[in-house]
Design a protein that fits this description.
The chain is of the alpha/beta class. The protein is built from 8 helices and 10 strands. Helix 3 crosses helix 4, helix 4 runs parallel beside helix 5 and helix 7 packs across helix 8.
């Protein structure tokens, strides 16, 4: 059982941003992730910093904490340039980077570069090309390939990742094509639950949806001769019908986490508190959860 956090890049580095990443390491979190967006939802009209520079700075001031994105998507990334950034990050961090990666959505990122928003099918098509190509770029010293959406011509990536054969992928997916990619390329799988249940569903329905997703992941792994138990299963909290309730008290979190660990989830990710936002929470309770919850859960 692992407990991790996600730190949204809304604070300037010298005005509290640096301290948040240091505190995450001090609290003993397994990994501290950040969103890889150009901006995001209710934070769109406020400060929002880039994921790669933020993780680079975090890597320079921490020693043990794993770091990563949750998640990167093709919305404004290209595999060739992303691979170079990731190899550099893995080097600077001493091999502590995890790439959370997903197909992207229809938010601000989808049109910020002037393109029309992609349909769900096109997002899936791009994702199906993006992930295998990125896998090659991170494991081969020179890559040439021509795809429908992404191409590389003698793209050099020397010396490669510190982590071998490459840094781990945590693939966010719920549909059949995404789960196939997770099975084929992921060292971990990421879910936020079923978004259809967020407004009107119950916690029990949400857990059943996660159970069903994991069953589908197991089938996708079995189809290629892989044991799904090899993969970590990551739940990013805050998007299930439970919403912020698990952070209301240590007891509430232990109950929430215990029920999901019983399903087979191996890592739970909680948002670092941001006042006056959807992720507002008591900092003292958050820190108590970080330092005491796993012991209460027997982990």
């Amino acid at each position: 059982m692992r407990l991790s956090t996600v730190i949204l890049p809304v604070r300037a580095w010298h005005q509290g941003g640096r301290d948040e990443w240091l505190r995450a390491e001090q609290l003993g979190f397994h990994t501290a992730y950040t969103y890889d967006h150009l901006s995001w939802r209710s934070f769109r009209d406020g400060p929002w910093y880039g994921a790669v520079p933020t993780l680079t700075a975090a890597a320079a001031v921490t020693e043990r904490l794993r770091l990563g994105t949750l998640v990167t998507s093709p919305n404004f990334r290209h595999p060739v340039t992303l691979a170079k950034d990731l190899i550099s990050l893995d080097d600077i961090s001493g091999g502590r980077i995890t790439l959370g990666i997903g197909a992207g959505g229809t938010g601000f990122d989808a049109t910020a570069m002037g393109q029309a928003a992609w349909t769900p099918r096109e997002r899936a098509d791009r994702f199906a090309e993006f992930v295998p190509m990125l896998d090659r770029l991170l494991t081969e010293s020179s890559v040439t390939c021509e795809g429908t959406f992404y191409s590389a011509v003698e793209a050099r990536n020397i010396p490669g990742c510190v982590q071998r054969p490459r840094l781990p992928f945590a693939v966010a997916a719920t549909g059949p094509r995404g789960l196939k990619l997770a099975a084929g390329h992921g060292q971990a799988w990421v879910t936020t639950g079923d978004p259809k249940l967020f407004e009107t569903g119950t916690p029990e329905q949400s857990r059943q949806a996660v159970r069903d997703q994991m069953d589908k992941l197991g089938k996708a792994c079995a189809d290629i001769g892989r044991d799904a138990s090899e993969m970590d299963k990551i739940l990013l909290t805050g998007f299930t019908p439970d919403r912020g309730r698990p952070l209301e008290s240590l007891e509430a979190f232990v109950d929430f986490a215990g029920r999901h660990f019983e399903l087979g989830i191996t890592e739970i990710v909680v948002h670092a508190p941001i006042p006056d936002s959807d992720f507002a929470a008591d900092q003292a309770v958050f820190e108590q959860i970080a330092t005491e919850a796993l012991a209460r859960l027997g982990g």
